[in-house]
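Supplementary Data S3. Sequence and structure tokens for construct A.
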Amino acid sequence: MKTNQFILVLFCLMLSLFQGQAQQVEEYLQVASENNPEVKAAYTRFEAALQKAPQVSSLPDPTLTMSAFGRMIETRLGAQEARFSLMQMFPWFGTNKLKKTSAELMAEAKFQDFLQVRENLFVKVKAEYAEIFRIENTLKVMQEDLEILNSYRKLALNRFEAGSAPMVNVVKVDIKKEELLTQIELMKEELETKKRQFNILLNRSQTAMVEVGDKLEYDAVIGNISNFEAHPSISALEFEKEAFENEIELSKKDGLPMLGLGVDYAIISKRTDANPMDNGQDAIMPMFSVSLPIFRKKYKAARQEAELMAQATEQEKQAKVNELSSEAEMLSYELRKAERLIDLYDRQITSSNQANKLLISGFSNANSDFEEVLQMNQDLLMLKIQKIEAQVNGYKVAARLDYLSFKNTTDENE
């Protein structure tokens, strides 16, 4: 019973470790989206754009006119002492609604710009993460090779002491070791630099710990991505186009009269020389006004501007779709290439390991040249490094494909 419980606990620990590695990138993406100033700026621009709708959809401010007579004008009911006029203009029916709709569409375009900035950041984060993975795993391979070279040196030294091989074999191993040690030191410095750059990208302390898993997990579909309607760069242009089409209708409304309603109030003083009916009663007069949009050139130009902008946005959208389609084709090829190279390197590493064992056995029995052993070991090292690079390239390509096949899963309340 205890054995079964131990196995269950061990399985859970291994599962949690795997899930933890898979979640590392997602955690970094979350930190980047919350901290990166470029993403913050894009979202702030969206919030600022939201404030445009209340501005353009409000009524014009009313006009209040006050006048006092230096020399009072006499009327039948008394002298006019002061006069107040209040006027409120109203745009043609539906004008403010169209203005609000245009502003909201432009705000939606800004939100899509924010999504695009965020997704571009995610691609950068994944690329930097992959670079750190490349360096760390290359260092592991080099450390393992350093141990192999130590074993080769010991073997060559034993053969020399036995008088069956020259001392030059030991010297050759020392040369390879010195070269490898230098590469390791340089790569360690590169690793620290990459980690600092990664933390800068996340806008956090440069000394913060960066952990990378043992594997680069990605799941990208190889094939043509034909539908880009949900992509932020396309959605932004679509919202802009709708806004310009709305501006066409708005230009027609702007060419219609504005209506004004108001009231005129005059303060009348009482007559002292007579007492007519309603003596000294103030005068109230309702007013109605209409603007006369007789200068039509500006309204015609505004409509033509909106039509041309809508046409240009549609052309820009088609150009962007073509650009994304072309990139998707190349990325699909690059992903297939990376996977084939990984498969090739796996097979070559297996074969090279077998050949290397045979060469070492042959050298131990004085049947093969030590130079061949060193060369085969060097080839094996390069194959392992090339496999790591192919994995990294595949991961970067998959990240870019994820960006192209964007599906907006952002919560509506975000």
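Construct B, processed identically:
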Amino acid sequence: MSAVTRKTFDEVMVPNYAPAAFIPVSGLGSRLTDQDGKEYIDFACGIAVTSLGHRHPELTAVLHDQADHLWHLSNTHTNEPALRLARRLTETTFAERVFFCNSGAEANEAALKLARKYAVDRNPEKTQIVSCKQSFHGRTLFTVSVGGQPKYTEGFGPLPGNLAHIPFNDIAAAEATIHWGTAAVIVEPVQGEGGITPATKAYLQKLRELCDKHGALLIFDEVQIGVGRSGSLFSYMEYGVVPDILTSAKALGNGLPIGAMLTTKEIAATFVVGTHGSTYGGNPLVCAVADKVIEIVSRPETLAGVKQRHHWLVDGLKAINQKHQVFTEIRGQGLLIGAELIPALHGKAKDVLNAAAKQGLVTLVAGTNVVRFAPSLVISAEDLNEGLRRFELAVAEIAAQVTQAA
């Protein structure tokens, strides 16, 4: 078979993605190498997925060991790695029960279905789901409808009904919308695709209060900010606001596909046998790795390191901005950081990403105006500083374009 290149993508793949011009072929720690041997610092982690870096030795050892024992069983049997992971999650969070699936979208789909059924079993008219504008909860028809970005639902109607979208961090809007007919409220503690915007503690506290008042369930979508990225194992711990249901994925498998929905014993009882399922959910190969991920991330030194690296990264970005004046705000939580571009650069976030790639740095965007950073939770100071150095070169290039245009 002939060699594959970036051109091959355009010849054989469905065109719903626009991948970078280079193809990474190997990774180690926080560095990637492409087909041409060029090395990149990774500030993206596969969109906050490989949070312990590429080829982490402890994870690689667990993967190899499990591969020599058992790969798959399906949900007609349980398995030891899934049970160990579920026990670890229930011992380290508010949850008492866990459901495993393959992705964040599936975890949110399960959470929304569970919440609807829990409510409807008690009152058939209690079906409303409230979410936030500019939110993102997945790409299934249900989750993309719940997500508050119309661009992702255009052309896919008719859409699921009785959904309400309110402005993020707007307490008055929440009070006006959540009522006796609300089944659930779903919120990202830190909006990811919506621009890396953290919720205020007062807002999450008010959502908790309103859900308690009206008998609705509060769902925290921690698919991106969870598993240590906030500086705590899960972001709800940073806020001190406990949800009824929490969803996790991305970093949970450090690159292997897994999602999880965490909830209480009472709420979980709604999903009786046959109610919901997932062929690959609880796969032993993936669960063995995910169990080690949670063990590593839960270590005090790992979480303390996230907070330290947060300051290194934010301080570095601020220093770059003092010189080049391209950002209006640098915000986020832990190691999920967004830098919003000045009005003169609106729509240019992808240009910054491409300029960074030329300098050997992989970054992300969050919309068209925000550059997103999600480096490894254990990235070395050397790699973080080198990544910032390369990013400054990219910023200088973009800033020069603004100067020339003026």
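The chain has 14 helices and 17 strands. The chain has a mean pLDDT of 96.
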